[in-house]
Amino acid sequence: MRMRTLPLLILPALLLGACTQTQAEVERAQVREAGVQEKLAKELAGLVPGKPETCISQFPQKQSSGFGATILYRVNSGLVYRSDTVGGCEGIARGDILVTRTPSGQLCRGDIAQTLDQTSRFPTGSCSFGDFVPYRKP
Fold this sequence. Notes:
Blueprint: H1 2-19, H2 23-44, E1 48-49, E2 55-57, E3 63-67, E4 70-76, E5 79-84, E6 86-87, E7 97-100, E8 106-108, E9 112-116, E10 123-128, E11 132-136
Antiparallel strand pairs: 1-11, 2-8, 3-4, 4-5, 5-11, 6-10, 7-9, 9-10
């Protein structure tokens, strides 16, 4: 009987150990995030943040780019909207396609977007938009 309970006691410990990150993994993630934040800061350099907006128009078409969980929509050289998303749309940074479905022609806080692989068209993630903060040239 004792031999049967031993594996049952070891199993939770093994599962818990599989879920923890090593110090090296944590450090790599921190370095990666610092690099993303540096690229984002360069993209927004020289622009001044304005009052957050709940929705932005989808038209005219805007160029989107991803920086970790942040999506930038470039309207023109003097206006960029920033939305910090919740979920998993980080694939935009590697070239995944961002797909939105909105009946109003606007992107709004809380709307859900999906990312697709460019080649296979398989879904790679989804996220919901945060507020849209306009960054303008002073």
